[in-house]
Amino acid sequence: MTTTETRPFQAEAAELLSLVVHSLYRNREVFLRELVSNASDALDKRRLEGLRDPALANSAEGEIRIAVDRERRTITIEDDGIGMNHDELVSNLGTIARSGTRAFLDKLRAAGDAAPSLIGQFGVGFYASFLVADEVTVDSRRAGTGESWRWRSDGKGAYTIETGQRANVGTTVTLHLRAKQGEDDEDPADFLEIDAIRDVVKRWSDFVEHPIRAEYDEEVGDKLEHRSETLNSRRPLWVRAKEEIRREEYDAFYRNLAHDWTPPAEVVHFKAEGTTEYVALLFVPGQRPMDLFDGSQGRSKIALYVRRVLILDECQDLLPSWLRFVRGIVDAPDLPLNVSREVLQQNALVRQIGKRLVKRVLESLATMLDKEREKYAKVWADFGIVLKEGIYLGGDEDGRISKIALFETTHGSDSSQGSVPTTLAEYVARKKPDQKAIWFLAGSERRILEASPHLEAMRRRGEEVLFFTDPIDEWVVERLQSFEGLPLKRIDSGDLDLETSAEKEAREKLDRDHREALQAVETRLSADVKAARFSTRLTESPAVLVSEGGAVSANMERILRAARQEVPKEKRVLELNPDHGLVKKLLELHAADPRSERVGDLVELLHGQALLAEGSPLPDPARFSKLLARLYA
Ligand code: ADP
Q1: What is the pTM of this model?
Q2: What is the CA(227)–ligand 1 centre distance, in A?
Q3: CATH T-level fold of 246-352
Q4: Which of 259, 504, 521, 608 has the most neighbouring CB atoms within 10 Å?
Q5: What whole-number distance in Å separates Cα of residue 614 and Cα of residue 444?
């Protein structure tokens, strides 16, 4: 005699079911991931229980079978796992048993319209079946029991339980696919194609340990032939011992993951053991991806697995934005499946894992810098600009980023090998004993900086200067301030404090002696220049512009303007080289006739020349060129 009981879903279970169905209709394919995961868990459970009680164990290797029946419009997912008895069917499929799920439900309720984005990323369980089915049957037989049970529901508030016919231990979930509903509903019958099943399994469940086998019929000529095919590759690279993985295998894995055909520059593969266990397999790409600076800007993306099942293909919370170029996966068995993105963000385990990943990536870069300088230089050229964001954003704990940063330098530029980018530590090791700072000059291009008059004094002193050509460099310096106790200082600032007291005295005397001429310069240039004075920093150039105090540098001003930001116009100081012919000429002309037109022309010319030399635009290029022509006429 079979009796059929009808029971209502627990109120909360009914609510979750309807939320899942309404939120995930665009993500229908996850139903298969969920059912496969459940089947895989059931196989694991049986293996475990079988260890304690051999009577419960599987005689063969357990597997998961997926079959489609086009005529009946059904998909079945079958396993030889632990199975469920009557009470388990009731409590597992009719109620919400786990407190985590309840908390998740609370979050979903609170999220309102945002629920789909929360729910879409995470394990939603068995109820996902109703995304594609209008009737679901679960036939199950619990290991160690002699009975089989059948659970059945249309997902609308109630389910039935009756005795079933299943002969073997395990569970079969049969989905009767619903009809297409309206124009923009994708037909669930698409999943009756084996190609679709294959794709979804590959995407979400490729690394499930148990074989996932597809059973289907294929037309061969006018006959149907039965096919059986294993869909998943099962043994993920990351669970294998590092020593037995060949570099080509890593490369192939990376290619699939990142869709990038250039082999990765670096592989970081490690297993954390102890209180929290997880595996991380990370890659530093071999080339800068096109989208490093657009679209998903600032978002890192690591694929997150829980026990080989993909949970989130772009988890942003494991790595900071300044490591967004790193690709890879983390498999963390201890993470809960049913958590929202927000919970994940605050999850202590995620934070802990993330910290460790950052540490390992930076360590491996440091090792590369040490052992494979050329290769590292390429990595830095591709991603240094992003890594430097980390300094600016406060990620430079113990100098772990600034120590591996490379900068263009004047050092070695006259050698036959040309200049090689330097680390700050190398710079400090080379500095003159009495050198006061790590000197730098910031601008848009090395070529222009190399011609800068500001370099003249440093050349004379034999002190090295770094060239900062990334827009972010100046912000980085703001944050860094110093390295190994040596301050970082821009050489186009007015107060370098390099003069000897004799030099200073001589210069100040010059300033006093020619006060009137300097006054004339200041008056003529009052719109752009706040003062004029003589300089000891120049050897070849006639004049140079320097920033005073905390003024925005010329480079920063240009960057901000390019970013369409309001920049207050900072007047700078014009320093004149008293030994230069043009400056001497100016003093002469002024002495002869302070009001002469030629004095004014020459002043403008000197100012324009100083602007050109630092790579700044001229306020009036046409006028400058006329003045220049007149000079030689
Ligand atoms: P979750 O898998 O996240 O726990 P589900 O709603 O998918 O949530 O499933 C609820 C419970 O039902 C599972 O925890 C498991 O105990 C049981 N279950 C689901 N599918 C199977 C299966 N194929 N075999 C055995 N038990 C299952």
Answers
A1: 0.73
A2: 28
A3: Ribosomal Protein S5; domain 2 (3.30.230)
A4: 521
A5: 10
CATH 3.40.50.11260 fits 373-490, yes or no: yes
Question: Cβ(9) to ligand 1 under 6 A?
Answer: no
CA-closest candidate to residue 438, choices 449, 427, 429, 446: 427
Token pair 């059931």: residue: 42
Give distance in angstroms: CA of 87 to centre of ligand 1.
13
Q: Model confidence over 290-340: pLDDT tens digits? A: 667 654 556 888 988 888 877 777 888 899 999 999 999 999 988 876 556
Q: Return the bridge partners of 171, or none.
A: 79, 140
CATH superfamily of 4-230: Histidine kinase-like ATPase, C-terminal domain (3.30.565.10)
| Ligand 1 touching residue 79 (CB < 6 A) | yes
Pairwise pLDDT comparison (632 vs 478), residue with the higher score: 478
CB 471 within 8 A of CB 559: yes
Dihedral of alpha carbons 430, 432, 436, 441, sign = negative
| 451 CA from centroid of ligand 1 (Å) | 71
CATH class of 503-631: mainly alpha
Confidence of residue 121 (pLDDT cuts 50, 70, 90): very low
Residue 126 Cβ inside 6 Å of ligand 1? The answer reads yes
Neighbours of 501 (CB within 10 A): 7
608 lines ligand 1 (CB under 6 A): no
Domain boundary assignment for the chain: 4-230, 246-352, 373-490, 503-631
Is there a common fold for 246-352 and 373-490? no
The pLDDT assigned to 50 comes to 87
Residue located nearest, by CA, to atom 4 of ligand 1: 125
